[in-house]
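Model the whole thing, not chain by chain.
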Amino acid sequence: MPRLAFDISFCAQLDKLQKPVKKGVFDAWHKFESLTLEQLFRDPGLKLEALKGAKDKQIRTIRIDQGTRGAVLAPESGDTFVLLRVGPHDETTSWALKQKATVNSVTRAVEIRDIQTLEELTPAYERIAPGPERRLFAKVSDGDMTTLGIDGTTLRQARVLTSVEQLEVFAPFFPQDQREVLEYLAAGFTVDEVWRDVVAVSLAGADPAEPVDTGDYAAAIHRTPTRIAVVTDSDELRDILDKPFAAWRVFLNPSQHKVAYRPSYSGSAQVTGGPGTGKTVVALHRVRHLLRQLPEGERILLTSYTNALVAALRTGLEALVEDESVRDRVDIMTVDAFAGRVLSTDRKPTWGAQEKTRWRQAAKVTGFTGTERFLAQEYKHVVLAQNLRTYEEYEACERHGRGSALPVSRRRVVWDTVQEFTARLAADGLRSHIGTCAEAADLLERQGPRYRHVVVDEAQDLHPAQWRLLRAAVPEGPDDLFVAGDPHQRIYDSKVSLKAVGIRVAGRSTRMRRNYRSTQEILSWATGLLVGRPFAELADDSRDDTLLGYRSSLHGGRPETHGAADADAELDALAERVRGWLDAGVRPGEIGVCARTVSTCDRVMERLRDADVPVTRLKGTATGRAGAVSVGTMHAFKGLEYRCVAVVGVCAEALPFAKAVTPADDDRLQHETDLAAERCLLFVACTRARDGLYVSWWGEPSRFLVEAGV
Ligand SMILES: Nc1ncnc2c1ncn2[C@@H]1O[C@H](COP(=O)(O)OP(=O)(O)OP(=O)(O)O)[C@@H](O)[C@H]1O
């Protein structure tokens, strides 16, 4: 029976397709399910046409609706067809004419390449290339290339390249598996590493020695599960068309799949990677996997840092695990909420300004003469971080990471002030966030664990007391903790390594390198903000993490920057930019505008409202509304994503935000940590953008932009 399968590049178009086009795709799929091969080729509505002048006669087009065509792989053998992409008639036809399908002789997967563009590009680059020894892949032998699945045509084309930048030009046209191999080699990975991390993963257990029939497309299509979805059920297809997230349950890339669906880890496991590498998606799939084997009566905790992230995890899990009774076995909440639940306390959490006043009051009682900021940091980064219980412990402790001198003679008064502060909080029915976690950890350490597995997303910002709580929440053993995070996105001032809190992930740690969210242009620009700065690993802070090999295969325009003369002019330009996106067909809900401060967000809301742009404020658990542009602080944007993002108010005095940075004279180390967090904040904000990024300021630009050479 004929069948229409779906290529991942079609799925990537899904959230931009209009309803009638989606309906056309559904109807076409239905025809493939119900007609014979002969009827299909004759069907006047479908017009499964061969194209005159096509580079590959297996690539045809079908009619989707009036004016819209689909490019289809119609293999000469077998009866499974693949919808590659849809679009306006002429555009799709001219794309289809240039493509060629082949079966990779090593991975056995179907690959599509833009052979015409590659053939046009290659001679031009060959003419300007230096001698063979100075080219990009000079150190990799032809034999090794063949072992990794690079075929003769790609080899000739790859051999002309002299730089990673040139590879980026060719990359979108290369066959997919081969492109990935070349990108890893170009990023400095050895042939053995590429075999292990890329090719062997795609082989998914198949024997590489087994001969491959590169003419057998029917078999190859089924061996390309990470790029081609064979959908047999109309409800499943409706799901994919209606909820683009559903597409990602069909296609995890091999390295994501390997991490998420590994039957079991012998202990805690970790996945790291730059923004948009799919860490959250992998964490959600891991929960799905763990649910399938969860013993009766046991539960899973899925947790993250903020309420908005927890709301996003909840929605993600709903899309992935349909059965509500199964989902109910997962508690999804912030670590702070979990701590509150463990203590089942009525005490209310305190907030920044309130704590400041309370530190001042406590200091008055004890006669401490330093600043409230010093006290708050000493409590958080020394007393709670090291879990110090007595003055003797505090007196003897090493104040790791603190850059302010504190003679032993002054420790007594600091300790007494901390005691005064905590006693007064308790007496007034209040609690500090991290203090609650420390108390809850103590309680759980006495009472015993509550979960079979704990899965943590955005792990980079958790404090040691929060880790102690999570550690105590689950018994040590196989699959106890699964941790996803990125040290480059640390935007709160907790700096902790998993090793230091007794969570060992050595040998069970994977770094993701492919970004699925942003275009390469956005990624390179944003990564430039961090270049040359060390970032301690999540697992072990004596080693540095790296963005080596971090890349995207999506392409688009370069980010736009705009410096205005004053604040009003900056907002006018923003309104114009947002209007431009809307006029170009971007839906309001696909646009996010963020700023460092709440007051700038307020002004943005007002200005966009004046321009008749529907707006909604991101706060607490709200992650936006379909019909309105989301406006929020950079902190609120953590973990979210939008098709187009404007980051505004990136001015010298707003970023770094003076109030958030400890003066170097008070504490040199804390000053550096705070500055790094402010820089990461800008990086996090910019990497929320998928297709379009706009960054603006008024007056002097932020030093972070200047240092990145913007
Ligand atoms: N294999 C894949 N194919 C296509 N898209 C994917 C794939 N994996 C993830 N994505 C998409 O990429 C985007 C980023 O994924 P996700 O939010 O999980 O990344 P992340 O690493 O957690 O990002 P961040 O650290 O920036 O919050 C999402 O839109 C997700 O649906």
